[in-house]
Amino acid sequence: MSNPVHILGLSGSLRRASLNTALLRAAGELLPADATLEIRPLNDLPFFDEDLEAQGFPPSVQDLHARIAAADALLLAVPEYNYSIAPALKNAIDWASRPYGASVLAGKPAAIFGASIGMGTVRAQLHLRDVAITTNMHVLNQPEIFVGNAAAKFDDQLRLVDEPTRAIVARMLQRLVNWIRAIQSCRPFLESAA
Questions:
Q1: pLDDT tens-digit readout, 158-179
Q2: Cys-Cys with 5: which of 27, 35, 79, 131 at CB 3.0–4.6 Å?
Q3: Helices in the chain by DSSP H: which ranges?
Q4: 142-156 pLDDT, tens per residue?
């Protein structure tokens, strides 16, 4: 049996009662048996600053880099702030994309989803897909998951209780794992052809 697929989850929300972080925790419950999910908070990262980068990556950034490099894929929970990506997530991506030409994001499979008390996170996810092109992340296209009216889909302990949402998250995770397995099976051929 092959090693479990290791997925790193990042939530763009820093709030303790974040619905997006709760969505990541729900994903951890819905994983296929051959996968693991680690959730890495982003509240310890300084704002990206080239002067700070020139002094050497801060320890929290080094930790983020190591965790992304070790992961088989990323699972990005995307809140929408002012019709775009939340600054905490964008900041993490900016740090992970450095140094130029040696990004730990390059070639990394990713899946994105998001929750909102409003209509959903469509615009933020579209913006993130643009960023993924620039950083060379490979985002799973389907299913798209925009959890609108999310407060009604979680209980008082922030457990995802809405069965249709649980089902589509489980389907996305299975597709992500299948996709990663397909990529892994092609690597020996691709490396020998290089």
A1: 999 999 999 999 999 999 999 9
A2: 35
A3: 19-30, 50-54, 59-70, 87-96, 122-135, 163-193
A4: 999 999 999 999 999
Confidence at 190, pLDDT banded by 50, 70, 90? low
Find all residues with CB under 8 Å of 91, minimum gap 6, and list them.
42, 45, 47, 48
pLDDT of residue 101: 82
Tokens representing 114? 């998001």
Amino acid identity, position 67? R
Tell me the three state secondary structure of residue 192.
Answer: helix
Whether the CB-CB separation of 145 and 168 falls below 8 Å is answered with yes
- Tell me how far CA of residue 68 lies from CA of 11, 54, 187, in angstroms: 14, 21, 19
Is the model's pTM score more than 0.90?
Answer: yes
C-alpha to C-alpha distance for 193 and 134, rounded to whole angstroms: 25
Q: What does the pLDDT average to over 83-106?
A: 95
DSSP string computed for 62-107: HHHHHHHHH-SEEEEE--EETTEE-HHHHHHHHHHTPSTT--TTTT
Question: CB burial class (10 A; 0-12, 13-18, 19+) of residue 139?
Answer: middle
Q: Which residues pair with 160 in a beta bridge?
A: 154
Q: What is residue 58's DSSP assignment?
A: -
Q: Round the CA-based radius of gyration of the chain to a whole number and report it.
A: 16
